[in-house]
């Protein structure tokens, strides 16, 4: 097991009818900036409930944060937060709203010249407006970590940053608020959660059987519950399990003391930035390609994954690995996800741009940092 | 899944050569009370390392905290902490030293007349001296929770208390510091961790498959690593896995949203208080008896446990449950633990005292609160 530090101070409030806790969680004297996305919280009733619960607070609003939250949009919120001198941020929605709000928190207090430096140059976050979240879409795990992924349309970039100051103080997770999600977002969320686990699990073995089993626990539960949610979208227990899986998939725990990959996410971010695919859509395409490309490096773990998660008992190690990759792909397909770029009508025209970006950033991907420009090109071709 | 709140702010620093982090973790201006037990940290070198690392700090010492830390002893430390006006506590050792120090933290700042009220009357902890721990014995999970169990010789009591103010700010877990543990303490620790999981898992099913699998992950890893540690006591990876299992077993995570039992612990505490058995020893005796007594109530989960943890595939549900209980007992026996009171030469003389105590406290045990005086007597007889 590798040495590690684990510290996750987020308070999770989980369950039905928990929104009312907001009054205990946010001090009465706070001036709140309530942030949200395209308005689904107005349709599903969450917005009305929250404004009622917070009727004795000073609340400013900023709506319209996109999926793949855009720097340009967020900077408008930063201007508003400064003008109104808000001292608490309350993102309500999915991971994009929360990620965007983490950036608002850091950028509003940023002392440097250009807040984009927080993302592009890893300028340190020395101060941030405190925030607490209400999550209505299980997917990114952002509710229990200090990370955010921000996009910038003008440069076609999608990049991550993180800071201990960007942990939400609390996150409220009410499974009932997910009943009304469109099927596409449910599937995207399941794939996102699944791939978050795979990035921390599908590497080389590192003598960490508990972490392996904890990862398999999430994968198996996601597979099981994904099958149920299509049939019974209003089943509270199913929605609760999916929501808790998404949260556990990226709160740092399963990554303790083990090598991590993240090649799928890094390549996927580029596909979103350059082709506009949903985050989950990119992952469903890229993960199988990365696994195929890295089969020899990951053979031992792929075989273990085949046995433990998919119940594959027969065949050579390589055959088991192949079956596991196919089963992963099938799982995505059954969820309604496409698993090739060609299925989206996308060809190789921008592959060179993507591969050269990793070159420019002098970035090597994968747990062995063995995926450079050439290998990214090979993986992208496997995505076609 | 039941509604829940999960909040665990402890920073875990895990791995070899991590003691030096103490200098970053404790502010330079703090006056530290270093607490420890019977002196094993002087034999295994941890004491020397820490005093060297903290040579620029003001450090007062208080040694001699017992296994099952005694109120009378701890009150001497409280007097010392007050006299010296210490403002940071650094327990170094196992769960007893840490539990005792949590009480010192709360009792030193207690405004009421009798600090025993914190334990016996659940008097609220409104202030506590901050603490950070160095753990050298994987067992209690105290390093990542806010609970403590304190004993009082004069009244033959052993009782728990907890407060968010008693979370360690940090816990350093260096598996190397466990190499020199006596076999009895290793076995006690494994049983303690195992039973912590069982108290949160072996109840009734509550539509929480992720938590079930996370619990099974710890149980299976404990079983696996327990077999290795006897053969290779100096294997770092084995020690690291046992240490991480113990921590995960009682940091609250697997108990999220599920019913909990704790009858084994409650009865076990009485056996320690009245007969002086080690904590782990009591659990190895009581758990099988509780499971036998509650077989019908827990049948579904016992059967699930038999299949998932022990690989039992054949037989009726009741047969599977019986096999699982036997396998649990065998596991404890192979660890060198006795699984009956008669094996310790203990007879039923104090059973009435124990059973009547739960009556006096008006306390019903088990996830269904269906274990009262009569049932405690029945369980104790099954322990013989």
Q: Which key features would you list for this structure?
A:
384 residues, Dehydroquinate synthase-like, alpha domain, Rossmann fold, homodimer, six-stranded parallel β-sheet, globular, alpha/beta, two-stranded antiparallel sheet
CATH architecture of the largest domain in chain A: Up-down Bundle
Inertia-based shape of chain A: globular
Strand content of chain A: 5-15%
Rg from alpha-carbon coordinates of chain A: 20 Å
Pattern of helices and strands of chain A: EHEHHEHEHHEEEEHHHHHHHHH
Kindly report the spatial arrangement of strands forming the biggest sheet of chain A.
1-8-5-4-2-3
In short:
The structure is a homodimer of 384-residue chains. Chain A is of the alpha/beta class and 384 residues long. In chain A, 48% of the residues lie in helices and 12% in strands.
